[in-house]
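re the bet — no i am not wrong, look at it urself. input seq straight from the record:
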Amino acid sequence: MYQGVILDGYTSDPKSVGWARFTNLAQFTVFERTPKDKVIERCKGADIIITNKCLFTKDVLEKLPVLKYIGILATGYNNVDLAFSRERGIVVSNVPAYSTESVVQQIIAHLLNIYCAITPLVNSVKEGKWAQSTDFCYYPSGLTELFGATVGIIGYGRIGRRVSEVLTALGLKVLVYNKGKTYEVQRNVAYALTLDELYAKSKAIILACPLTADNTGMVNADSIAKMQDGTVIINTARGGLLNEQDVAEALNAGKLAALGADVLSAEPPLSSNPLLTAKNTYITPHTAWATEQARARLIEVAYKNCEAFLNGTPQNKVN
């Protein structure tokens, strides 16, 4: 019987589904977390590895001679050396699109939280300020109606397209940049041929693109200077898309109005991360993907991916 390991099952396991059914496919050992220095030890002798964030570089893969399959518990797969795994004949599968609706929900939540000032107003009520108010209500500056405003979306895959649909349903205009490509004509959706155009025209900017060598740190002092004063940035994609020091400085100076983020460059974040103490930051702990429904879909597809591999018909193969 095939031998398998699940290396970092804690974050993905929604309990209502669990890992028990994987034992129908192979003899699995489940670890909630696996530190870097334990990966090779735990994977020796394994034919099948199921993982989310553990790194499988060439150096690691070379020490796992019987490995045949890596199932990624995520859509992203930059934690695996795809070229070397392909050379070795190791199949790598991911789980696409399982969390689209959940991520879009959180993007919209960040956007509305910022423009409706939900968090500061709720906190002020808890602090007793409403009870102390002379009037029946009180409100700060900065409450903004978004209807008719232009929101830029960088990246136009499944998440970008779905965000676009929700934004237009709310009466906003959408400006899309996806490496200069244009798409079918849609009501209230336009396509920017350059990032500079999107920066200049957008009241808020949503990052919905993968992290690549070309776009690392793309939101930096230079690009921020091209944005409107008071632009809001929403990032649920990858923390590395931001030059975090530059963004923090722009927030503190008021050039950027606010940041809604679900991701940072290092996770858990370093205490020295400047965004943790910058003005008007609303940071959630990488949870946009993690609704119970999304995690249940994730494990279901991961199971079917593994089953398909064992049946000789790999699906969702990324290498």
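see?? The chain has two domains: 3-96+292-310, 100-283. told u. also Residues 100-283 form a domain with the Rossmann fold fold (CATH 3.40.50.720). so pay up
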